[in-house]
Each structure stands twice: as structure tokens, then as C-alpha cells.
Inverse folding.
């Protein structure tokens, strides 16, 4: 396993591969990080995953976030770093695929600091249906009663986003003990 990890690190760091190959490198490094016993190699794998997560313009950034989130041996400092990276990728200037992953992870991990970004994403003139649906879902996990009017708009005006908005409102209501 160590030899494969070294090869994948070299491929990622080499920069001569297309985005899809870099994403595969990140996926495989993330999948094997839990089984790496050598502390130095494990630290190098973690470093590559962080480096990938910082590449806001690449789809592999989102893959790297999920790889970092799956690390059962992450230290409190690494978990804080994961949070910072996730919140940074929620921003509008990130690759759409990476941003979708970050928005979903923010909801799953309970990063309420992402709410202003999510709310803004739903009011942006440039919109992506998948990104909207993921943002609506994360607002359902993180939001409060002030988000219900925004979500209700989608139920009334947008049949593609309505099911996600209905589910998000149910989650908010359940969490707040409304229904």
C-alpha cells in the first residue's frame, strides 16, 4: 500500500495529469489513508489532501474534503482545518463540483457559519439547479425559521427545487419542534 501511496502522491504533485486523473489520485489516497501505519507517509497523504482541497478551481477539491472528513484519526487541529477548507469552498468562486461537495459537507458537519453563503447562493442571479438543491438541503440541516420564507418561494415557483425545499422546511420544523 505504501508504494501505491507514493506513486499517487507523485502523480498528484507532478501536475502533468488531467483533472479526472488528479481526482482519482485524491480518491485513492483518501480511501487508503486509514490503513497507512507509517506516520510520516500518513502525514504526506494528509498534506496532499489538504493541498487538493485548496485548489478551489478544481473538482478534486471537493473529493479531498470528503477524504479529509473520513479520516477517523484526524486531530482536533485537522478537524478545524477541514472546517476552514469546507467554508472556503462554499464560496461562489470555487469550482461548481467542489462547491457542491463543500455545501453538502457543511450541512452534514453542522457548520452553521456556512449559512450566509448558502442564503446568498439561493438569491444569486447565476444559478445551478444541483447547487441550489444541495444548498436548500444544507439550509434544512443548519437553518432556522427565518429561512422558511426563502424556501417556501421554491415550493410555489420552482417545481424542480420544490421537493428539496419541502424536505428542508420539514427538517427545520422538526429541529425547532414546530410540528
Amino acid at each position: 500500500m505504501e508504494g501505491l501511496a507514493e506513486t499517487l502522491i507523485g502523480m498528484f504533485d507532478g501536475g502533468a495529469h488531467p483533472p479526472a486523473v488528479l481526482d482519482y489520485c485524491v480518491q485513492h489516497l483518501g480511501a487508503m489513508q486509514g490503513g497507512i501505519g507509517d506516520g510520516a507517509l500518513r502525514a504526506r497523504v494528509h498534506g496532499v489532501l489538504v493541498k487538493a482541497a485548496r485548489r478551489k478551481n478544481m473538482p478534486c477539491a471537493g473529493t479531498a474534503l470528503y477524504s479529509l472528513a473520513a479520516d477517523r484519526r484526524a486531530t482536533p487541529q485537522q478537524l478545524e482545518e477541514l472546517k476552514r477548507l469546507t467554508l472556503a469552498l462554499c464560496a461562489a468562486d470555487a469550482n461548481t463540483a467542489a462547491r457542491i461537495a463543500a455545501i453538502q459537507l457543511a450541512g452534514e458537519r453542522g457548520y452553521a457559519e456556512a449559512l450566509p453563503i448558502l442564503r446568498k447562493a439561493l438569491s444569486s442571479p447565476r444559478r445551478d439547479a444541483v447547487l441550489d438543491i444541495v444548498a436548500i438541503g444544507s439550509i434544512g440541516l443548519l437553518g432556522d425559521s427565518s429561512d422558511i420564507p426563502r424556501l417556501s418561494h421554491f415550493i410555489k415557483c420552482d417545481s424542480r427545487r420544490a421537493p428539496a425545499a419541502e424536505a428542508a422546511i420539514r427538517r427545520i420544523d422538526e429541529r425547532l419542534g414546530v410540528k
